[in-house]
Structures are given as structure tokens and as C-alpha cells.
Specification:
The protein is mostly helical. The protein has 13 helices and no strands.
Length: 345
């Protein structure tokens, strides 16, 4: 594995999520698909992109992949989906959704096995926030031809295939049996995944200020990017339990005031996303040698939070009270399941 793999995967993550956002929003912007059908396609995309990663992850763990092949296949699948576009919307969404899932597993395995700290994971996951937000905006405005994004994805696929090859790193001389590992880790894993569900639901349901500036969604994405990026760094320096718990506790008052203030909402988004790499690496440390599968479990938890919010949207008055409570609950979960050991190698 080359030292530049983190850079390659992080840039590729941005491009893959950008392409997915562009594909989904460009279908609606072209006016060729009814709004109700677009809503169904969004749910289909999120289900495929997030609720299938554990399957790809389990397969990657089984063949002991270092992630590069899965990332390569994921990028190519995404590129095919972009090319198809609104010509066959459901097919296009299947390609970009499954491509996104496959890529994330590949990049996730690299982040969780090449370095046992939190920084690498935080850097990797951060770029997706900006990618999806900017891609959605590009799709709304139909910026550039899809061919441009396909070319960018092709270059990313080449970079992954040439610069990220290698053997998967392992800590144990003998791979632990899955049943033994999962049995010992089940309570902690369940609490961590519950924290991820809470974070996902709260992130979607959080009450936004009524008056915002035109590019507010991009600012929110930038805040999420910064939180994830620095979250891993802070965890390695100051300890995951301290950083994860404190950041979520700070969200309790910040989200309450953020319902009325753009600045408070953006600050809350920053602190809320600090916990992302902490819960991810925390879960991976519970299931050593099964990093692909556990990475996928965290995205299933993300999908559950998204789906609950989609099925049962709540009003503004309830959200203002509920989201701070959920932030406090997530803080307790992180406190119970993480420690301040900065790097277990």
C-alpha cells in the first residue's frame, strides 16, 4: 500500500459523492421525471448506497481485500450510472447507489487497517460531505456535461488501481473467528450503532433557522466536512472519549439556539460531526479483522436514521426539544463505548 492512498481515496470519495448528487438532482432539474418518482429514486439510492455496504464489506473481509479492488469497481459503477442518467433513471440510480456502497467499503478498509488511529478515518469520510452538497448544486443547475464527471471518475479509478494496490494489513497472526469476536463485542457494537442511528436521525431532523443565505446548504456541508476532518485529529491528540463526549454535549445548547441562528446551527453541525470518525473507529476496534463488515454496519445505522426521519417527520416545535436530547443520548453512548487510548497498533 502506497503512502498516497489516503489522498487518492479522499479525492475519489469527493468525486464519487459529487457524481451521485449530480445524477440525482440533474434528473429532477431536466424536468423529465415527476417529483414523486424522484422522491422514490432518492429513497432507492440511499437504501442501496448505505444499506448494502455491510454485504460488500463482508465479502471484502472474506477475500482479505485491502479495499482497492472494491473501490475501483465502485468508481466504475458510479461512472456508468452517470452516463445512463435520466435515459433510464432507475437503472442509473442502481449503478450509482451500488457503486457508492462498493467504493466506501474499499476506502473504509484502507482507513481502518492502514492506521489504527482516528485521523485517517476522519480525513477519508470528510470529503463526502462537500462532494454530495456541491454535486447536488451542480445537478440543480446542470453545470457541465456528464462526460466531464465521467472523465474525472475514470482518472480516479486509474489512480486507485495503480497507487492503492497491496496486501491488507492485519494485526493478528491468526484471524479471530467471527462468532467469537461478535459475541464478545455485541453490547458495545449495539450501543455504538445506536449512537450512529441517533446522529443520523438528528442530523436530518435538526431544525434549521427560518432565515438563511442562498448557499446555506454548502455552508452546512463545509461545517460537516470540518467536523469530520478535525474530529479524527482531535481524538488522536486528546483522546476519543473526551473529544466525542464533549463535542456531543456542546451540541445540546448549540442545536437549541441553532433553530433561530445560522451561526449557532453551523457551529452545532461542526461539533456534531466530530463524533463521526470516533464512532467508526470505535466500532472497528471491537471487530478486529472484520473492518469491511463493521464499516458497512455503521452505514446501515445511518440509513436507519434517515429512513425513520423520512417515514416519521416531526414538527419544528418538537424538533427544537428532541434534537438536544438526542445529542445528549449520543454523548452518553460514546462515553460508554470509547476510551482515551490514542492509538492502538
Amino acid at each position: 500500500m502506497k503512502k498516497c492512498s489516503l489522498t487518492v481515496y479522499t479525492v475519489s470519495h469527493f468525486l464519487v459523492d459529487f457524481a451521485c448528487g449530480y445524477t440525482l438532482y440533474s434528473m429532477y432539474a431536466k424536468g423529465e421525471i415527476e417529483a414523486t418518482k424522484v422522491a422514490v429514486l432518492f429513497i432507492l439510492y440511499n437504501m442501496l448506497a448505505f444499506a448494502t455496504q455491510h454485504l460488500f464489506g463482508a465479502l471484502a473481509d472474506k477475500v482479505k481485500s485491502n479495499g482497492s479492488l472494491f473501490a475501483f469497481v465502485g468508481i466504475i459503477s458510479t461512472a456508468v450510472g452517470v452516463l445512463i442518467g435520466s435515459a433510464a433513471p432507475a437503472v442509473s440510480v442502481c449503478f450509482v447507489g451500488l457503486g457508492n456502497a462498493c467504493f466506501h467499503v474499499g476506502g473504509g478498509i484502507d482507513a481502518l487497517t492502514e492506521d489504527r488511529g482516528f485521523t485517517r478515518a476522519g480525513v477519508l469520510v470528510s470529503s463526502g460531505s462537500l462532494g454530495i452538497a456541491l454535486g447536488c448544486k451542480a445537478g440543480e443547475k446542470l453545470v457541465l456535461s456528464p462526460a466531464v464527471y465521467v472523465l474525472a471518475l475514470a482518472l480516479a479509478a486509474l489512480a486507485v488501481s495503480f497507487l492503492c494496490r497491496g496486501e491488507r494489513k492485519t494485526l493478528a497472526e491468526e484471524e479471530p473467528k467471527f462468532k467469537a469476536v461478535i459475541s464478545a463485542a455485541t453490547p458495545a457494537i449495539c450501543i455504538l450503532l445506536f449512537a450512529v442511528v441517533i446522529r443520523s436521525y438528528a442530523g436530518f431532523a435538526a431544525t434549521k433557522p427560518t432565515e438563511v443565505f442562498p448557499l446555506f446548504s454548502i455552508a452546512v456541508a463545509a461545517a460537516a466536512f470540518s467536523g469530520k476532518f478535525f474530529g479524527g485529529i482531535f481524538a488522536d491528540i486528546f483522546g476519543a472519549r473526551r473529544v466525542g463526549t464533549l463535542s456531543l454535549l456542546l451540541c445540546v445548547p448549540l442545536y437549541y439556539f441553532g433553530a433561530r441562528s445560522m451561526i449557532f446551527f453551523l457551529i452545532a453541525t461542526f461539533f456534531f460531526n466530530i463524533a463521526m470518525p470516533i464512532t467508526l473507529v470505535g466500532a472497528a476496534r471491537k471487530l478486529r479483522s472484520y473492518e469491511g463488515f463493521v464499516f458497512g454496519l455503521t452505514t446501515v445505522a445511518l440509513f436507519i436514521g434517515y429512513f425513520i426521519n423520512t417515514l416519521f417527520p416531526i414538527g419544528r416545535a418538537l424538533s427544537v426539544i428532541l434534537i438536544p436530547i438526542l445529542s445528549l443520548t449520543a454523548a452518553v453512548c460514546v462515553f460508554l463505548t470509547t476510551d482515551n487510548i490514542r492509538d492502538r497498533k
